[in-house]
Amino acid sequence: MLRQKRKELADQAGVPPYAVFPDKTLTELATFFPQTEEDFLNTFGVGKTKLEKYGPAFLSLITAFCTAHAISDAPAKKPPGPVVRKPLQGKNGMFRWPGCIITACLSWISPNSFM
């Protein structure tokens, strides 16, 4: 249902379907059933422009589906978990953190240069 609407809107605009919404957005719409503009705006890949362009069409589909299937509350979104980076041990036995500027700076310094 959501893919059909995306394809229809994409054909009307002359753009590929992923330009309307990527698959991740459709997955979130089908999982969390946003029924208000605020909830729709909190969906991955939806900004103010896409809300104005495509929000009414998708919100009406989702609202109709929820009404037909007696869905009143959507499952709560989990906040994203923290990103945990583990240190890597280099060839010289020193630990380094990937993406760390200190690691980048130290990568060109010899471990024996301070002795």
Main-sheet strand order equals: 1-2
- The CATH architecture of the largest domain is Orthogonal Bundle
What percentage of amino acids are in beta strands? under 5%
* CATH topology grouping of the largest domain: DNA polymerase, domain 1
Overall number of structural domains: 2
Order of helices and strands: HHHHHEEH
The CATH first-level class of the largest domain comes to Mainly Alpha
Approximate helicity band = 40-55%
Describe this structure in words.
The protein has 115 residues and is mostly helical. It contains six helices and two strands; from the N terminus they run αααααββα. The protein is globular. A two-stranded antiparallel ribbon has the order 1-2. The model has no long low-confidence stretch (mean pLDDT 79).
TL;DR?
The protein has 115 residues and is mainly α. It contains six helices and two strands, in the order αααααββα.
